[in-house]
Write a structure and sequence with these properties.
heterotrimer; A alpha/beta (437); B alpha/beta (304); C alpha/beta (185); A: 437 residues; alpha/beta; TIM Barrel; nine-stranded mixed sheet; five-stranded parallel sheet; 19 strands; C: 185 residues; Rossmann fold; 5 helices; globular
């Protein structure tokens, strides 16, 4: 493909901490120039922010096995539409990604679809049963650097400790779905006032916190790398903060729905709001935002969890947990956390500056997972994995307007600020002028 | 009057009064030879019961039939539901048949509200999971009003597995709407989180509240809760929170004992208490039909 | 004196249709005499149709006692559940039905203040039939204002008062309204 230049873009690069209006020229797979040049075809980027392509540490692409909900093709297309150039699909497919074969299948499907890079997460235990270690080595040989039984917790401390220890062979990351399942039997909604009045079995915060506490102690004792997925409670934030302070090698992520939505949304019993871990309260939201602001939480990750319509159009108790989020993550972050009137480096009335928000969506996730080539910096010689978005564009989220096969979007009907215009993967448009390319 | 009867929280004091006043008009009907009136002639009421409940279903069935409605009984066992038909598809089938009202009893909280999005029919909640059982609360309020000529200012103690009880949730809301005072008595494991949100006091000590109680309302405690470790044994439960002859004697003059049924004799209530003169359990059942007639009457009018 | 069932052809404006308390008293007395004339007094039961038919029934019973020395049992009948407009107009509050004696084999005299379309009386007859099997049902009304929509006629009429449909006839009774009068508006 011949060279082209984005003219007049607002280049905001968390990797180098820069904010400048500049022209960015892309040739082949790389960025070749950032400055005042206009080489090749000129593409007007006036009014757009140009940032490193977003990186999502936690998505469910459902293929193989649940293609009625999503496929690698549809999920990565949704990712491209959301400004992502790299996503990490979880292993709870059918068959489970607990061996190199399934991992390679997912890699191939993604390559063929060409919408987005995937860095599959391998299972920790065979079949996600939490009993026997999966062949981490064979998966590491095909590039896996993070292992998770997400969806299922590793219940037994001994197995968790073995996994943390064994993964040190590759300095790989163990990511445990923190849910003490004996405390969450039959649980439906965060244990609190809403669950009490709605007659839904409570899901206590302690179920997450006791397991996070356990894992932090185990990882700390071994010097192993731990990643805490979908942090949802104030208590978890405090635990991670304290562990980081004493040098535990832990990173953490939070999903947009956990830092914006509360449990009283379950009042209408619409299962679109049913998720694991459950939506919590204002107090937890404030703590999660504070965690993003002080770096306790490294990354924003969607936990994109598609489910087919008939599964979410049921009695609350029968519906599976999960929300889609790839196409709204950036907008929700900008709308809820970033002050539109503040300067790029400043927070103003927001929780994060634009630069910090983009860091949480792109640079920090990439670095925490050792994902090379994504997350910036935006400079000559680096792969052109980029997203360009209109910072102030106002739009209404519509669950029908989606690349995903699924419609379980909690933000349906809400007005959001910030819209992706283009996404490029190694110099090629995967999303252009509001359409998947 | 609203379109559906889903939860006591939707009813104001005026609504409750209207339902109870209308029910009073239906009580006498049960004593006539011809217990029927033609009011709902030609209308179809469907009892859609996903959970077995002979007594509630019969009560609703009689209520509908005495109003001359046609009644369909749809129970989950042996029906298309047991073959995996979803609530949505069942709803769409009933919608296509032009049913006027659906009385839904379901094991999961929120099912009646979910049902309303798929049907034009009036939906009456006959009990959904642990959430609400509004007609039970209304017949309880009616029984209380009949006995005391008022509800305001009465002191009601609700004892038992409050956490899992839809009857408790409905009744507490109904009592609070009508300005009664409510105390919940239960072991901490069976008390709800955030009871202050209910507007009720909480106690673990039944004996301490008895002499300040006008209405002692006993909830059924299921033996399964023991397997789930909510309390150690039926014996211990009965000793600490069961209503027996001694506790009955400590109630003030004029106090009544109520139970929504079915009873676990020996657990939350002894035979002596169940058969005592101030136990009004039979009245509750009798009033159930009149109250349900009242609900059907008030909901289905004005559709044409 | 008008005979029952044959309204006078009087134009609506000529007679404002106002009955005074004295007029009402005389009308009730005359109806009581007509009832006595028909006989069968010891089989009678008077059922006033809620609401204003009830004091009327009580006054007829008092007059019958005075004229013939017979205690005719008096009750009240609520027709709300038998109305034909439940679907269109919606649910109305219920009033009490009090029936002092079994109606089986008896002659029931329904009493109401105004006879108009006849629908209330149709509902009342259905209600009486569900109470038992009367030997006969008769109707006594204080005012017959015409405009029947069903083939129903009163046996005993206090006053025939032809009206235009847009007019309304209001009977006021001391027992309920504090005064006795009939006004047409």
């Amino acid at each position: 493909m011949s060279a082209f230049t984005f003219v007049g873009a607002r280049v905001v690069d968390p990797a180098s901490g820069t904010d400048q209006v500049a022209n960015v020229t892309v040739s082949g797979e790389e960025i070749v120039a950032v400055g005042t040049q206009v080489d090749g075809t000129a593409i007007d980027a006036d009014g757009l922010v140009l940032a490193p392509g977003l990186v999502d540490l936690h998505v469910h692409l459902r293929q193989p096995g649940r293609e009625d909900a999503e496929t690698v093709q549809s999920g990565t297309a949704a990712a491209a539409a959301g400004g992502f150039t790299a996503v990490c699909p979880m292993a709870n497919t059918d068959p489970v990604a607990d061996n190199a074969g399934v991992v390679e299948l997912v890699l191939r499907l993604a390559r063929e679809a060409g919408h987005c890079d995937v860095f599959p997460v391998g299972a920790i235990t065979r079949g996600l049963k939490g009993e026997e270690l999966a062949e981490l080595g064979s998966m590491a040989a095909v590039g896996v650097r993070c292992f998770s039984d997400d969806g299922m917790p590793v219940v037994t401390a001994r197995v968790m400790r073995r996994a943390l220890e064994y993964a040190r062979t590759w300095d790989a990351i163990i990511c445990n779905h923190s849910e003490e399942s004996s405390l969450t039997e039959g649980a439906q909604l965060n244990e609190g006032e809403a669950s009490s009045l709605l007659g839904l079995a409570g899901w206590p915060r302690e179920a997450e916190e006791v397991m996070v506490a356990r894992d932090l102690i185990l990882a700390g004792g071994l010097g192993a790398r731990l990643h805490v997925p979908h942090v949802s409670t104030a208590g978890t934030v405090a635990l991670v903060r304290e562990a980081k302070a004493r040098g535990v090698r832990v990173t953490a992520e939070v999903a947009p729905h956990h830092f914006t939505l509360t449990d009283d949304l379950a009042r209408g019993y619409d299962p679109v709001f049913k998720v694991n871990p459950p939506l919590r309260t204002k107090t937890d939201i404030e703590a999660l935002r504070a965690g993003l602001a002080d770096g306790t939480i490294d990354a924003i990750a969607t936990d994109h969890a598609p489910h087919p319509g008939e599964q979410k159009e049921q009695e609350w108790a029968y519906a599976p947990c999960g929300m889609v989020g790839l196409e709204t993550s950036l907008a929700v972050t900008l709308t809820e956390l970033v002050d539109p009137h503040a300067a790029v480096h400043e927070r103003g009335d927001g929780v994060l500056s634009l630069l910090e928000a983009l860091a949480c969506l792109s640079t920090k996730p990439a670095r925490s997972r050792d994902i090379a080539g994504h997350g910036g910096p935006i400079e000559p010689g680096t792969p052109a994995n980029l997203t360009l978005f209109d910072l102030t564009a106002s739009w209404t989220a519509d669950r029908e307007q989606t690349q995903s096969r699924s419609r379980n979007l909690p933000y349906h009907g809400m007005t959001l600020r910030g819209r992706v215009q283009h996404t490029l993967l190694r110099g090629r448009f995967t999303y252009q002028d509001g359409q998947v390319a | 009057m609203m379109k559906h009867l889903l939860s006591m929280e939707d009813l104001s004091a005026e609504d409750v009064t209207q339902i109870l006043d209308t029910a009073a008009g239906f009580v006498d009907l049960g004593e006539r030879t011809v217990k029927k009136v033609p009011t709902l002639r030609g209308r179809t009421v469907c009892n859609l019961f996903y959970e077995d409940s002979t007594r509630t279903r019969i009560s609703f069935e009689l209520a509908a039939k005495r109003l001359s409605a046609d009644v369909l009984n749809f129970s989950a066992k042996g029906s298309s539901v047991s073959k995996g038909e979803s609530l949505k598809d069942t709803a769409l089938t009933l919608q296509a048949m032009g049913v006027d009202a659906i009385v839904l009893r379901h094991s999961e909280s929120g099912a009646p509200l979910t049902l309303t999005q798929w049907v034009d029919a009036h939906v009456l909640n006959a009990g959904d999971g642990s959430h609400q059982h509004p007609t039970q609360a209304l017949l309880d309020l009616f029984t209380i009003r009949q006995r005391f000529d008022r509800i305001e200012g009465l002191r009601v103690a609700i004892v038992g597995d409050v956490l899992h009880s839809r009857v408790a949730r409905s009744l507490v809301q109904g009592l609070r709407t009508m300005d009664a005072e409510v105390t919940l008595v239960a072991p901490p494991t069976l008390a709800p989180p955030r009871p202050e949100a209910w507007g009720a006091a909480v106690s673990t000590d039944l004996d301490a509240v008895l002499d300040k109680t006008d209405v002692l309302y006993l909830l059924r405690v299921q033996r399964e809760r023991m397997a789930q470790q909510f309390f150690p044994s039926p014996r211990e439960y009965a000793r600490l929170w069961g209503a027996d002859r001694d506790r009955l004697a400590r109630l003030p003059q004029g106090a009544i004992v109520m139970h929504p049924g079915p009873m676990n004799r020996g657990m939350e209530i002894t035979a002596e208490v169940a058969d005592a003169p101030n136990a009004v359990i039979g009245e509750q059942v009798r009033n159930g039909i009149a109250v349900r007639m009242s609900c059907l009457y008030l909901l289905l009018g004005g559709d044409g | 004196m008008t005979s029952p069932g044959s309204p006078q052809q009087v134009s609506p404006q000529a007679d404002a249709g106002v009955l005074s308390a004295d007029d009402m008293g005389r009308a009730v007395r005359r109806m009581a005499h007509e009832i006595v004339e028909r006989g069968n007094l010891d089989q009678l039961v008077l059922l006033g149709i809620r609401t204003r038919g009830v004091p009327l029934a009580e006054r007829l019973a008092a007059a019958l006692l005075d004229i013939a020395g017979t205690h005719v049992p008096v009750g009240s009948l609520d027709t709300t559940l038998y109305r034909d407009d439940y679907a269109s107009a919606g649910p109305r509050p219920l009033a009490e039905t009090v029936v002092p004696v079994d109606v089986d084999g008896r002659e029931v005299i329904l009493a109401d203040d105004v006879l108009y379309t006849g629908r209330t009386i149709r509902a009342a007859m259905d209600a009486v039939m569900d109470l038992g099997r009367p030997q006969a049902i008769r109707l006594a009304v204080l005012v017959d204002r015409g405009h029947r929509e069903l083939p129903i006629r009163a046996d005993y009429v206090g006053k025939n008062m032809p009206t235009a449909p847009e007019q309304s006839v209001r009977v006021r009774l001391v027992e309920i309204d504090g005064t006795d009068e009939v006004v047409v508006a």
